[in-house]
């Protein structure tokens, strides 16, 4: 029996592989996790970034290594230096057989305040060059509570399309059915280690009944975190109300303009009627030169969407911290009673 | 009695460093480099970065591999690569300087003296770290050495590697959680509450252990140990004495504070949800 499908040209294979699977999981090596933590922690509370290297395998994005960026300066010359640094680092790492494929970047954050326009811009920049990229966000402040605050984020496809066209008017958003929930997408993280590292860790570190993690988790004082969270929440609320004011202003302007247009139209019609009665040509009912016909620019909704995202993020964090402290408080109570 | 100075055969303990501390990220990096070593290479070597504290303790915080070629009697190190990488690393963290070098394999090998000499020119008293990735003795041995010169007067006769105490600082790794770093694959990062649960379970089992021990001692099944007894006494005493009324008030106040915050955040979320619904309702119009 002939078996023609077995023989496929390279081109055909390439064409079939082209169907991109959606990104499901980010698989990160323990080495990369430790490097990110080291870099972010050393520079905290300053926010730092770095590049992630790895492989793109089907629906899994493997992050096998990373390197830090120097703290960014505004100076042009130093910026060019930064690009050189990046190339140099990539070249050097390739020489020792590290995966030489950029898959995204990482950055540190303070209590989860990362949803900014800059992040979106950076993401779009990366997206231009790499089809599938991811942003890993690490929160050193939250990690002190004994949580590994590592998150992998990407922008959703529908949002990226909208962002490319820079269309954030109410109409477009309605058309796409896009709300603030659909901007960022969190991707589950897997951690993998090579067998060698696993062997070393098991050998070097016997099972201790208590770890530093437990101490951090059972820390009773949560006031500073709560305070910071609420503080940020209040800031966000202010921002949101500012955005709303902008919007109200826009609507007021719009309705005023529409009223003016109506008034003008009526006047023109009355005039036309008068002219018709007199047997003259009617005047056109539109006058583009008139300033009242100039459309009022609609403010972008992007900012308010981002602020909304932030708010919900802080709410989640408050819930998380409160939930933890409830368990701690009841634990304390039980201890005191026994 | 020592004779004329010129004829004394003596060791120059050229080092002031008494011990070394290694951060887990260095071990991870070395293992990763070893896994990714070029075909037919026996071992990988590389540079260690970190700082030397005033009391001579070497804090090894970072590392990078340096490509090299090794034959029976000579070692060729890619010095250009080494310098480029050093420059790049210093851009990010100027505080980290060269403190030594590492090599995989068991203990010190033949070519090591040559490489050590090279690093001695870069920095005084480099530390040589060996990581036994082959598990030669059936155990993971990580050792640190410094070089000690054997001199006859002014002439240098030989160099000898002396092992120095090594402290594996795992605090960083502890914070991440060994569970994540030990196994080859972790499917999901533990969330806040799951971590909390695990911690509490561990605490509970520890308390159970203490109960069991105390019961055993009381019933004379186990010989009492004063030290353990004192530890337990200290632990029990560390719970602050507060009158039940004051304690209840404290706990209740705290719980109420948190409930209020929880309520506020839920309210905010409800508002956000409502706003979104209103937005979608506006779409239909």
UniProtKB/TrEMBL annotation, chain A:
It comes from the Eukaryota. The keyword Transmembrane helix does not apply. InterPro entries: eIF3h (IPR027524), eIF3h_C (IPR045810), JAMM/MPN+_dom (IPR000555), JAMM_MPN+_peptidase_M67A (IPR050242), MPN (IPR037518). GO terms for biological process: formation of cytoplasmic translation initiation complex. Keywords: Cytoplasm, Initiation factor, Protein biosynthesis. Residues 26-159 form the MPN domain. GO terms for molecular function: metallopeptidase activity; translation initiation factor activity. Residues 268-279 have a biased composition (Basic and acidic residues). Its main location: cytoplasm. It is found in: Cytoplasm. GO terms for cellular component: eukaryotic 43S preinitiation complex; eukaryotic 48S preinitiation complex; eukaryotic translation initiation factor 3 complex. Residues 266-296 are annotated as: Disordered. HAMAP family: eIF3h (MF_03007). Belongs to the eIF-3 subunit H family. Component of the eukaryotic translation initiation factor 3 (eIF-3) complex. Component of the eukaryotic translation initiation factor 3 (eIF-3) complex, which is involved in protein synthesis of a specialized repertoire of mRNAs and, together with other initiation factors, stimulates binding of mRNA and methionyl-tRNAi to the 40S ribosome. The eIF-3 complex specifically targets and initiates translation of a subset of mRNAs involved in cell proliferation. This is Eukaryotic translation initiation factor 3 subunit H.
From TrEMBL, chain B:
It is found in: Cytoplasm. Residues 20-151 form the MPN domain. GO terms for molecular function: metallopeptidase activity; translation initiation factor activity; translation initiation factor binding. InterPro entries: eIF3f, EIF3F/CSN6-like_C, JAMM/MPN+_dom, MPN. Pfam families: JAB (PF01398), MitMem_reg (PF13012). One of its GO terms (cellular component) is eukaryotic 48S preinitiation complex. One of its GO terms (biological process) is formation of cytoplasmic translation initiation complex. Component of the eukaryotic translation initiation factor 3 (eIF-3) complex. This is Eukaryotic translation initiation factor 3 subunit F. It comes from Papaver atlanticum.
